[in-house]
Amino acid sequence: DAGVYSKAWYAATCDRKMAEDALYRSNKDGSFLIRKSSGQDSRQPYTLVVFYNRRVYNIPIRFIESTRQYALGREKSGEERFDSVAEIVENHQRTSLVLIDSQNNTKDSTKLKHIVRVS
């Protein structure tokens, strides 16, 4: 169990478009939610959706089978790994999350500040 089901930030029945629309409506830097990933892939079960600087970032959450842990984005050396998705959220409520814009090749960072509920 990733520790997501009882959490206010987990949008269980939400797809990518609904998540992005909800974050654009919130229009607050650091707004976020977690949704199920679009592809039914056990190695990437969830997506962290973050609003910053008038943009929405969809960051894959990977499940690492060998260690039964979770990590953000593509695999990289020295990456942070967490025992649950809830730990990822708690960590990035305290420490900034790096947001990489691959289209414009820019980096920003923000903390997860505002939980967005999808209605």
UniProtKB/TrEMBL annotation:
InterPro entries (UniProt xref): Immunoreceptor_sig_adapters (IPR051751), SH2 (IPR000980), SH2_dom_sf (IPR036860)
PANTHER family reported in the protein's UniProt record: B-CELL LINKER PROTEIN, SH2 DOMAIN CONTAINING PROTEIN
Residue span, SH2 domain: 9-116
Protein name: BLNK protein
Keywords, comma-separated and alphabetical: SH2 domain
GO cellular component, one term: cytoplasm
One example of a Gene Ontology biological process annotation: intracellular signal transduction
